[in-house]
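ugh ok so i messed up the first submission bc i forgot one of the chains. this is the corrected input, ALL of the components this time, i swear. 785 residues overall. if the numbers dont match what u have on ur side tell me asap before i send this to the collaborators (the ones from the other lab, u know who)
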Amino acid sequence: MKFLHLIWSNLRRKKLRTSLTLLSIIVAFVLFGLLSAIQQALVGGVALAGADRLIVREKVSIINLLPVSYEARMDRIPGVDFSTHQTWFGGVYQDPKNFFMQNPVEPEKFLKMHPEIILPPDEEKAWLATRTGAIVGRRTAERFHWKIGDKVPIQSTIWTQPDGSQTWTFDIVGIYDGKDKGTDTTPMFFRYDYFDEARQQWGKGKVGWYTIRIKDPSQAAEVAKRVDAEFENSPAETKTEPEGAFIQGWASQLGNIVFIVAAILSAVFFTILLVTGNTMAQAVRERTGELGVLKAIGFSNGQVVALVLAESCLLTVIGGAVGLGLARAITPVVAQNLAGLLPMFFLPTRDLFIGLGLSIALGFVTGIFPALQAMRLRVADALRRM
Amino acid sequence: MSGPLNWLSQIGSITKFGLLSLPQRRGAVAATVIGIAGVVAVLVGVLSIAAGFRQAMAVSGSPDGAIILRSGADSEMVSGFGRDETRVIADTPGIARTAQGPLASAELFVIIDLPKRSTGTDANVPLRGVEPAALLVRDNLKIVQGRMFEWGKDEVIVGRGAAQEFAGLEVGSKIKVGRYEWPVVGIFSANGGVAESEIWTDAKILQDAYNRGDSFQSVSVRLNSPDAFQAFKDSLTSNPQLNVQVIRQTDYYAQQSETLTRLITTLGFLIAFLMAVGAVFGALNTMYSAVAARTREIATLRALGFGGGAVVASLMVESLLLALVGGVIGGTLAYVAFNNFHTSTMNFQSFSQITFAFKVTPQLLARGIVWAAVIGLIGGLFPAIRAARLPIASALREL
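and heres the new structure output, hopefully the right one now
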C-alpha cells in the first residue's frame, strides 16, 4: 500500500494519455454491461425457471391447442402435484407497437403455481370475485398508466366474441410485483372461465399449454415421460419438458444469442487490450531510466513487476468500475425504450462481478509484458539510458 | 512556386516523413489500425444481419403480386377464409390467368416443431399448404433437388434454407405431423426469399391433417400488371360478400421484416458507436504519441519555414491513411466472415422461423470505410493542432 502514491504519480505523469486510455476502457465496460443486459433479457429466464415445474405443449407445434380435459388426467399421473393451463391471447392495446403478453388463466391455481408473482391478498380476492377482472404486472401498469379500477380494451386478432367483436374489455383488479428482479412483470392475466364462455365456438374448451408442479424435482424426466405416454396416440399428443428447457428453447428460436454476444465482446476486448497494452508498454519504455534507479536503490525484481502490474490493473479497474457503473445507470433508461420487446432487460449483479474480474484480468494481461521487460532490465543498461 | 502548390508540396513532404517513421512506432500504429478494423468489422457484421434479412424479404415479393388476408389480421397466422370466399377472390378481375385458370393460390399456414441444427432445440418451422398456382404466383421458384410433390399425395417439398437450418429435412427423410408421416421428395429454391424457410405440401392434404375442413388462411395472387393493384383492391374491399384486406406482396414482406430490422439496426449502431468512441481514444493516443516522438522534427521543419497549416494537414492525412487501412481490413474481415452466412431467426409477426443469409453489401462496406475515416480524422485533429502550436524555440531545445 505504501507504494500507492508512486503508482498514482506514474499514472498522472501523462494525464492526457492516461485519461484517453481510461476512457476507452470505460467504453469497453459500458458495452460489456449492455451486452450482459441483452443476454439477460433473452436467456436470463432460464435461471429463474422453477425446477419443480414442467411445461406441457402440443407435440407438433405450440400453436396447436390442447383439450382442457387434460388437466384432470394429468393431476392423476403419479408424481404430479397439480397442473394448470394458459392460452396465448395475442391481443393488442391501441397499437400493435404496444406489445405485451395477455393470457387467460385459472386464478387460484395460477397463483399457487407461480409464487414469484406477488399479489396483495385483497386484490386476489377482488380478482376471484370479478369475472372480467384481470391482473397486470407493475411494468405494464406503469407503462400505460393503468390503475386499479380501470377498464382496458384489448383487441384480439385471434379470439373473437360471438357477435364478431374483437374488442375485449377487462377490469384491472390487481397489480402484481415480481419476487425477483428478473421476474417478468409485463404480462396481464385474466380469467379463463370468462374467456372460454365469451369466445366464439372455435377453440372452446381448448387451451394453449399446461404447467405442472411435480412433487420431486429430481423425478422431472420420469414424470415428463409419463405425461407424454398418457396422451400418446390421441389426436393431441403432448411434449413435456422442464420449464428451464422450454424457456431456453424459446430463446434459441431467436438465434444463437450467447454466441453472438460472446463474439462481439471478444472483438471489443481484443481491441481494448491492444490500446491499453500499447499505452502500458509505452509508459514503461519511457521510464526505463527510473526503473533502473529503483532497482539500483534496492527494489527487487518482484517489486518492480508488482509496481508495473499494479499500475495497469489500477487503470483497468478504475475504468471497469466506472464503465460498469455507467452501464448499470443507463440500462433502466434503455429498458424503458425497449419496453415490450425485451421485458427483462437489466444488468444483473452477478455480471457486475464478472465485469470487475474481467477488468483485473485485462490489467494483468496488458501489464505483464511491460512488467517482464522491466524485470529483465539490467541496472547498468538502464542507468546509461538516462 | 505558387502559394497553394507550395502548400501541397509541404504537406506531401511532411506526410512522407511521417509515413517513413511508421515502422519505428509499430506497436502504436498496429493498435490503432487493428482497433479501427475491429470497429468496422463489428459495424459491418451486425448491420449485414439486418441487410440480409431485409434482402430476403425484398426478393420475396414481386410488384404484381398481392396477398389477401381477413381484415384485421396482421399475419397469415390469424387470418382465415372458407372455400366460398377464396373462390370469390380468385374470380375477381385483375388476376392474371393461364389456360388452367386464374393465378390464385389459396393457402394454409401452420407451424411444426423441428430441431435447429445449430442448437438442437425445437424451432417453429412454417408448413404451408398450397394450390397448383402457387408456383406461378411467386417469382423464381425452382426445384433444385428431387422432384415436386404430387397433388393429392402425402408428400412435401422443403425450401433450401429450411433444409439447411433444421434437422431431418433431406430428400428421402420423413417429417412427422401428428399421426402422419410425410416423405420429403424435393428441395426448392426461391432466389433466397422467405419461401425458402418453408415446407410446402398440397393444401388439401394439410386441411385433412389439421381437421380444417375446407378452410384457408390466405390467398396469394399474381395480377395482370402492377398497375392493376388499386382496381383489384377496390373491387375486393367493396365486395359485400367479403371482409378482407389486400396487400401488395412487397409491402407485406416489408411490414413483416420491420420489427426485426429495427431491433438489429438499433442495437448494431449502438454497439458500433460505443466501439467507435473507444477507437477514437485509441487513435488519439497513437497520434499524440506520434507528435510527441516527432517534436524536434516538427519544430525543425517549422524553423525551416514549413507552415503550421501544412503540419496539421499532413498529420491528419497520416491519421486518415492509418484509419482507412484499418477500415479496409475490417471490411474485408467482415466480408469473409459474414457474407452469405446462413442462419435462422424467429419472425415475430408470423411466429415462425425464417432462414436467411447475412449480406455484406457494397453500401455497408462504404459505410464502414466512412466510419473509419471519421474516426481517423477526429483522432488526428487534436494532436495535429497541438503539433502546430508547439513553440518552435522550446521544442528545438529538446534536442
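quick check: Residues 39 and 260 of chain A are 10 Å apart (CA to CA). that seems consistent at least. Chain A has 15 helices and 13 strands.
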